[in-house]
Amino acid sequence: MSQAVSYLSWLESAQHEFEVLVRKVLGAEAAKSIDWRRPRIICIAAGFSHHDRVAVQRLPERIDLVRYRIFDGGLLGLLLVESVTGFPSAASSRRGRKRATAADNVRLR
User: Fold this and answer.
1) In this model, does residue 14 exceed pLDDT 60?
2) DSSP code string of 77-98
3) What's the distance, Cα to Cα, between the start and end of the chain in Å?
4) Integer Cα distance of 15 and 50 in angstroms
5) Distance between CA 87 and CA 33 in Å, rounded?
């Protein structure tokens, strides 16, 4: 997981370079459709520890933990172990956007 968070940090610092690569490989429309507001980390491994599962609950990022298993005959199985939506206000504030307060998220009727 620490490797994935490190990659996300690098990706956020290299947005322009990433968009240029996407434009080159997938086209201008794909590059324009990139949404940097809420990136998602997907970690795929043979297993995750209890500590991994607890850690993703504490991180402000959107993270999915997916366990893989290879069966006889080369069949690959994937199992979603944990899926965390993250904390939008914490993630947003780290990326230089205004931090939302709990009151900002309450709608009066």
Assistant:
1) yes
2) EEEEEEEE---HHHHHHHTTSP
3) 41
4) 33
5) 23
pLDDT tens-place string over residues 16-26: 999 999 999 99
DSSP the chain: -HHHHHHHHHHHHTHHHHHHHHHHHH-HHHHHT---SS-EEEEEES---HHHHHHHHHSSSEEEEEEEEEPGGG-EEEEEEEEE---HHHHHHHTTSPPPPGGGGPPP-
Q: Are 82 and 65 in contact (CB under 8 A)?
A: yes
pTM of the model: 0.68
User: Distance between CA atoms of 74 and 4, rounded to whole angstroms?
Assistant: 26
Return the number of other C-beta atoms located less than 10 Å from residue 61's C-beta.
20
32-87, pLDDT tens digit by residue? 999 988 899 999 999 999 999 999 998 888 999 999 999 999 999 999 999 998 87
Tokens of 83: 């899926």
